[in-house]
Design goal:
heterotrimer; A mainly beta (404); B alpha+beta (351); C alpha+beta (307); A: 404 residues; mainly beta; Neuraminidase; 4-stranded antiparallel beta sheet; 3 helices; 30 strands; B: 351 residues; alpha+beta; 8 strands; globular
C-alpha cells in the first residue's frame, strides 16, 4: 500500500469542503457541456431548416403560356452567390443561366435551373479591376457573348466558358487580327486580349507564347447585346455622348464558323440626343415577331421603336402615370410579343403588349425592397419558354426567378 | 428661412428647366419638367426607406449609372475611369477612353502612383467613405476642437447635389458640388465655379496624377487664378476646417493642439521661383511641379477627391491618425494622395 | 502625453524601417526616390507639432528620437556620445563628435548648445574673441550643421552653413565608421563656417599677425602639418597614452583638439579662465571652461608639444 494514500479518516473537514466544491464544479462543467451540445444540435437543426426554406423550387411542369390572359407572374425563388449582378441570359436549351457580376471578382457565373453553381469565367489575362462584364446573350449553338465596359470589347465564349474570340471593333475580331499578323490560325491556337496591356498574346500549337502589338482600342463601346434565334445580333453602342447607336450584325456573319475574316456590313440606326430617333445611353435592343426593334433608351426614360429597315417609328413609356419608365435597362420579348423592360430606379419590371399597332402597357411586377419578389436596382431580364423569368437584382446580390 | 429659400429656388428651377433626363447640369441632374417622372426614380414621398425620401441609400443609386457598368454615364466612378472615347463631336474632349478620372475611384483606380509610366487598375487603398458607414471628418471644427467630427457619415450626395444648380444662388457648380456639404457645419457656403468645357480625365496619357487639380482658366489674371484655386481648398475646408492654411502656416503655430503647424493648402508657394524659371510667354516652369495648370498649392495638388491606389510603406504607412490612433496602418494611410508614400512632397521639394 | 505618443510612434516607425538606416546619407537621410516614404518619418503635412512641419516642436528632441540615449532608431547615440554596440544599450565606444549630455560616461562640461536658442558665434566674420550673429534668423540646432535630407558632405554636413558654402570630403561614409577617427583634411571648413576668424591657416600666425586674416591677437595655426617645428605625431605617438586625431594624414585640424558636439573634459587652475577678453564661451554651463576640448586642462597641447 502506498504510504501517501489518503483514507477518508485522514481528510480534514476543510478538505472535505474542497472536495465537495470540486464535485460541484465538475457537475457544473458537465451541465455546461450538455448545454453546449444541445445548442450545437439546435444550430444544426436551424441551419438545416434554413437550408430547407431556401431550397431551390422543384422544376415546374412545362405549362404552355396562357394565350390571351394577362396577369403578372409570381415570385418563385432566388439564386444567390452572385456579387452585384447586372446581366442575365439563358442557354439555348434553357438549362443554364449565365450571370454577369459587377462586384467582387467580376465574373460571368453559370447556374443550373435549380440555382446550383456550375462554374464561372472571365476574359483571359484580366484582373477584376480591368474588366466589367455587363450584358450577355447566347446564340443557338450555345456560345456566350459578353459585353465588357472597361475592355470596350464583346467577348465570346463556348458554353463552358472557354474563351472563343472577341470583337474588338465593329469590323475587327481578335482572331482576325492575330491571324493576319501571324499567317493564319489553326484550331487549337490560343490568343488573349486585354485593353490595358500593350500586347496581344497568342500561342500556336506546339510553340511557345508570343506577343504582337495590340491594335488601337476600337472607337466603340458595346453595351447591350441580344441575339435572335437566327443568329442576328443587335448591339447597342454608346461610344461617345455624340454617338449612341444600335448596331445590327447579320446572322451569316455571326454564325460563320470562323471570324478570321470578319467584315459585317455597317448597319446601324439612331444618333445621340433627346429627339425622335435619338438615344441617350441605349441599353438593349430586342426584336419582336413582326420585325420591329425596341430599344431601351436609358437616360431618355423611354422605349424607342424602329422598323426592320432602321427607320424610327415611335417612342413610348415617357412621362408619368402607368407604364412610365424611369431608367429602362435590360429588355426581353416573349413569344406573344410582350415586351419586358427592367426599370432600374423604378425598381420593377414593366410589361407592354407590342403585338398591335400601338404599344399597350399591361402591368408591372416587383417593388423596392429586400424581401422575396422585391428589387433593389434590377438591371436585366431573361425569359424561358416555360414561363420562367430571371431578373438580375443587382443590389440584392441575387437572381430572382419568377414564373407564370 | 434659408432652407425654404433654397427649396423655393429648387422648385422654380425644376419648373423652369427644359425637358428630358439628360444634359442640363448634366445627365439626369437637372432639366426636369413640370410633370417630371424623374423624382419617382429616386424618391418616395411617403414610403421612402432611406433618408431624404430616397428609395435606397447611396452609392447604389449613383452606381446605377456611374458604376463599373457605366450603363448610364461616361464617368465610371467605381473604377475611376472615363468609359468612352470622345472622337466625334465634342471639342475639347470630355475625356479619353479608359483614362483615369481626376478624382480617382471608389473601388478601383487607374493611377500611375509610382511614376513608372504604367498605370494598372487595382483596388483603392483609401477613399472617401461613401457607403453610409461612419468615420471621422478630420479637422472638422474650429481651433482647439479635437481631432474632428466623429461618427461622420458620407454619401455621394454629401458633396454632390444630384439635382444640379447647387451654388448658393442656384447656379451650376463644378461637378455638382454643393455650396455647403451636408453635415459639414459650415454656414456660408463656397461656390466652386463650373468649368466651361468639362474635362473629366487627367491630362497625362499614362495616368500620372500629379499636376492635376481644379482647372483654372488659363489666361486669367494672376489674382483671378489665385482666387479660383483658393475656392477649391475653401470648399474642402468646410468639412476639413483646420486643414485650411495659408502660406507661412508651416512656421507659425495655429494654436490648435493637433493641427498646429500646417502645410499651406491655399495660396501661392513662398517665392515666385518656386514654380517659375522665367516669366516669358509662355513662362518656363520647373518640371518638378508637373504640368502647370495651376500655380497654387491647394488640397487637390496632393490629394484626389474620391480614392487612390497609392501605397504607404515604412514611415508613411505608420503615420498616426490625427486622434493618435495607430491603426489601421499600412496602405490604409495613403490618405487619398496622388502618389505612393510621400511622392507628393518630393514632386515639389525634391530632396 | 501626446508628445510621448508621437515620439513612441516615431521610434516604432524608425525601428520598423531599420533596414538601410545605418548610413548617414541613408535611411531617412537622403537617397530619396520619387515616391519616398521617408518624409513621413519626421514631417506631418497638416498635424505638425513643430515648425518646418516637424512632428516635434524641438528639432533636438526629434533627432534624439533616434540618436538619443534610449532610442532604438540609430546606433549613434549623440546624446551620450556613444556608438552603441547594440542600439539603445548605452554601451560602446565614444563617438567621434563627442556627446551633448554625457561623454565618456561623465556629464559634459561644454557643448555646442543645439537647443535653437544660441544666435551668435565667436569669430563669426569678426575678430577672435568677439561674438557676431549667425545668418539671418539662424539659431543653432542640429540642422544648422547637418542636413537631415542628406548631403554630399562627410556626416551629412550641410552644403551651406551660416550662409557659407561648405565642402567636406567623405572619407568613411562607405565603411560607416563612427568611432575610429579618420577626419578628412578639409574638416575645418565646417567649423570655419561660423568661427571663420579661428581658421587662420597661414604659417607663423602664432607669432606674426601680418599673415592673419582676422584680428584678435596671435592664434594657433589651423590645417598645418603636425610636424611643423618637429613635434611628435599626435595620432600614432601621443603622450602618456593620450592621442589626438589628425585631418587627412598629417594635418592639425580644429577637430584635432576639439570635439564637435561636447566634451566632459575638466578645466582647473589656469585653464578655467574663460576666453581672452573676458566673457564666457557659449555652451559653458559649468564653472569649468572646457571649450569642447578633447582632454582635461591643456592636455591637447601636450600631446603634440610634449613640454
Amino acid at each position: 500500500m502506498p504510504e501517501n494514500k489518503v483514507t477518508e479518516h485522514d481528510i480534514h473537514p476543510a478538505e472535505m469542503e474542497v472536495e465537495k466544491e470540486e464535485k460541484e464544479e465538475n457537475r457544473r462543467r458537465l451541465l455546461l457541456l450538455v448545454l453546449l451540445l444541445l445548442l450545437a444540435l439546435l444550430a444544426c437543426v436551424a441551419a438545416l431548416f434554413v437550408r430547407y426554406l431556401r431550397r431551390p423550387a422543384p422544376l415546374p411542369e412545362m405549362v404552355p403560356l396562357p394565350v390571351d390572359v394577362n396577369y403578372p407572374p409570381h415570385y418563385l425563388f432566388s439564386i444567390y452567390g452572385v456579387d452585384k449582378p447586372v446581366g442575365v441570359a439563358l442557354s439555348p436549351e434553357e438549362d443554364r443561366i449565365y450571370v454577369t457580376e459587377t462586384g467582387g471578382e467580376r465574373l460571368v457565373k453559370i447556374f443550373d435551373r435549380g440555382g446550383d453553381p456550375l462554374g464561372s469565367f472571365a476574359p483571359p489575362r484580366t484582373t477584376p479591376g480591368e474588366r466589367s462584364p455587363v450584358y450577355l446573350a447566347t446564340d443557338s449553338t450555345g456560345r456566350v457573348f459578353v459585353t465588357d465596359r472597361l475592355q470596350h470589347t464583346l467577348f465570346v465564349y463556348d458554353p463552358e466558358g472557354n474563351f472563343w474570340d472577341a470583337i474588338l471593333a465593329p469590323d475587327l475580331t481578335l482572331s482576325e487580327y492575330v491571324s493576319k499578323h501571324t499567317n493564319g490560325l489553326q484550331p487549337g491556337d490560343t490568343f488573349a486580349y486585354n485593353q490595358f496591356e500593350s500586347d496581344v498574346y497568342y500561342q500556336k500549337t506546339g510553340e511557345s507564347e508570343q506577343t504582337l502589338p495590340a491594335p488601337d482600342p476600337g472607337g466603340w463601346a458595346p453595351l447591350g447585346v441580344r441575339i435572335d434565334e437566327t443568329g442576328r445580333m443587335l448591339l447597342t453602342d454608346v461610344a461617345t455622348e455624340g454617338f449612341n447607336v444600335v448596331r445590327e450584325f447579320p446572322a451569316e456573319v455571326i454564325m460563320a464558323p470562323s471570324w478570321q475574316e470578319f467584315n459585317p456590313p455597317e448597319r446601324m440606326f439612331g444618333s445621340y440626343g433627346q429627339g425622335n430617333g435619338e438615344f441617350l445611353f441605349p441599353n438593349t435592343a430586342v426584336p419582336d415577331s413582326q420585325g420591329r426593334i425596341y430599344v431601351t433608351d436609358g437616360n431618355n426614360g423611354r422605349i424607342s421603336a424602329w422598323d426592320g429597315q432602321g427607320s424610327f417609328l415611335f417612342n413610348f413609356g415617357q412621362g408619368s402615370g402607368d407604364g412610365a419608365l424611369s431608367l429602362p435597362r435590360g429588355a426581353a420579348m416573349d413569344a406573344r410579343d410582350r415586351l419586358y423592360v427592367v426599370d432600374a430606379v423604378g425598381q420593377d419590371v414593366k410589361v407592354y403588349d407590342v403585338s398591335g399597332p400601338e404599344p399597350n402597357f399591361l402591368f408591372a411586377f416587383g417593388d423596392w425592397g429586400m424581401g422575396d419578389g422585391q428589387f433593389n436596382y434590377p438591371n436585366d431580364i431573361a425569359l424561358d419558354s416555360s414561363g420562367r423569368l430571371y431578373v438580375a437584382d443587382r443590389e440584392n446580390d441575387r437572381i430572382q426567378v419568377w414564373s407564370y | 428661412m434659408k432652407l425654404k429659400l433654397i427649396l423655393a429656388i429648387g422648385l422654380l428651377t425644376l419648373l423652369a428647366l427644359p425637358t428630358g433626363w439628360a444634359l442640363a447640369d448634366n445627365g439626369p441632374h437637372g432639366g426636369y419638367t413640370a410633370t417630371t417622372d424623374a423624382c419617382a426614380g429616386c424618391h418616395r414621398a411617403h414610403t421612402a426607406p432611406a433618408a431624404r425620401l430616397l428609395v435606397d441609400t447611396m452609392p447604389e443609386l449613383c452606381f446605377s449609372c456611374h458604376g463599373s457598368t457605366a450603363t448610364g454615364a461616361d464617368t465610371n466612378v467605381e473604377d475611376g475611369v472615363y468609359a468612352e472615347r470622345d472622337f466625334e463631336t465634342e471639342a475639347p474632349a470630355e475625356g479619353d477612353v479608359n483614362r483615369g478620372l481626376k478624382a480617382g475611384g471608389f473601388v478601383n483606380a487607374l493611377m500611375d502612383t509610382d511614376f513608372d509610366g504604367v498605370a494598372t487598375s487595382v483596388p483603392v487603398t483609401s477613399s472617401h467613405l461613401n457607403d453610409g458607414s461612419t468615420g471621422t471628418a478630420w479637422g472638422n471644427g474650429s481651433i482647439g476642437s479635437g481631432a474632428g467630427a466623429a461618427n461622420f457619415s458620407l454619401s455621394c450626395a454629401s458633396c454632390h447635389d444630384p439635382h444640379g444648380g447647387a451654388s448658393t444662388t442656384g447656379d451650376a457648380t463644378y461637378r455638382l458640388l454643393r455650396a455647403i456639404p451636408i453635415d459639414s457645419g459650415a454656414a456660408i457656403g463656397v461656390n466652386v465655379a463650373d468649368e466651361a468645357n468639362k474635362i473629366y480625365t487627367v491630362s497625362d496619357a499614362n495616368n500620372k496624377y500629379f499636376g492635376e487639380g481644379y482647372p483654372i482658366t488659363p489666361g486669367n489674371t494672376w489674382t483671378a487664378m489665385d482666387q479660383q484655386e483658393r475656392e477649391v481648398s475653401n470648399w474642402c475646408a468646410q468639412c476639413h476646417t483646420r486643414y485650411l492654411a495659408d502660406s507661412g502656416s508651416g512656421s507659425t503655430g495655429s494654436g490648435d493642439d493637433i493641427f498646429t503647424f500646417r502645410h499651406m493648402s491655399e495660396g501661392t508657394p513662398s517665392t515666385c521661383d518656386s514654380c517659375h524659371i522665367d516669366f516669358g510667354s509662355p513662362p518656363t516652369l520647373r518640371t518638378t511641379v508637373g504640368p502647370e495648370w495651376h500655380h497654387n498649392v491647394e488640397c487637390m495638388t496632393c490629394h484626389v477627391a474620391h480614392g487612390t491606389t497609392a501605397i504607404a510603406g515604412g514611415y508613411a504607412g505608420t503615420v498616426e491618425w490625427p486622434d493618435g490612433a495607430t491603426a489601421p496602418n499600412g496602405d490604409a494611410r495613403s490618405s487619398l494622395l496622388r502618389a505612393d508614400n510621400r511622392g507628393v512632397c518630393q514632386r515639389c521639394h525634391g530632396k | 502625453m501626446k508628445k510621448l505618443i508621437l515620439v513612441t510612434v516615431v521610434v516604432l516607425a524608425l525601428a520598423l524601417a531599420m533596414v538601410g538606416l545605418t548610413s548617414a546619407n541613408n535611411g531617412p537621410h537622403g537617397g530619396y526616390t520619387a515616391t519616398t516614404d521617408a518624409c513621413a518619418g519626421c514631417h506631418r503635412a497638416h498635424t505638425a507639432a513643430g515648425p518646418k512641419l516637424l512632428i516635434e516642436d524641438s528639432t533636438f528632441a526629434l533627432c534624439m528620437s533616434c540618436h538619443g540615449s534610449t532610442a532604438t532608431g540609430a546606433v549613434t547615440n549623440v546624446n551620450d556620445g556613444v556608438l552603441e554596440a547594440v542600439a539603445g544599450s548605452n554601451t560602446g565606444t565614444p563617438l567621434n563628435g563627442g556627446g551633448f549630455t554625457n561623454y565618456q560616461t561623465a556629464a559634459t562640461t561644454s557643448t555646442h548648445d543645439v537647443s535653437e536658442t544660441v544666435t551668435d558665434a565667436w569669430g563669426n566674420g569678426v575678430d577672435r574673441g568677439t561674438l557676431a550673429a549667425l545668418a539671418a534668423g539662424e539659431a543653432l540646432g542640429c540642422a544648422s550643421c547637418h542636413d537631415p535630407h542628406g548631403s554630399p558632405n562627410y556626416r551629412i554636413i550641410k552644403a551651406t552653413i551660416n550662409g557659407n558654402a561648405v565642402t567636406v570630403t567623405q572619407v568613411d561614409e562607405g565603411a560607416q565608421v563612427y568611432d575610429a577617427e579618420s577626419w578628412p583634411a578639409d574638416m575645418s571648413n565646417v567649423c570655419a563656417a561660423c568661427h571663420e576668424a579661428y581658421h587662420e591657416t597661414a604659417a607663423n600666425v602664432g607669432s606674426d599677425t601680418a599673415g592673419q586674416v582676422f584680428g584678435g591677437g596671435y592664434t594657433h595655426r589651423i590645417d598645418m602639418p603636425y610636424n611643423y617645428g618637429g613635434n611628435a605625431n599626435p595620432e600614432t605617438v601621443g603622450m602618456g597614452g593620450y592621442t589626438l586625431p589628425l585631418g587627412g594624414t598629417d594635418l592639425v585640424v580644429c577637430n584635432t583638439c576639439h570635439l564637435s558636439h561636447g566634451t566632459s573634459a575638466q578645466m582647473t587652475g589656469f585653464a578655467d579662465g574663460g576666453p581672452t577678453g573676458g566673457g564666457t564661451l557659449p555652451g559653458n554651463t559649468t564653472a569649468t571652461d572646457s571649450a569642447l576640448l578633447r582632454l582635461d586642462n591643456r592636455g591637447v597641447c601636450e600631446v603634440c608639444h610634449q613640454k
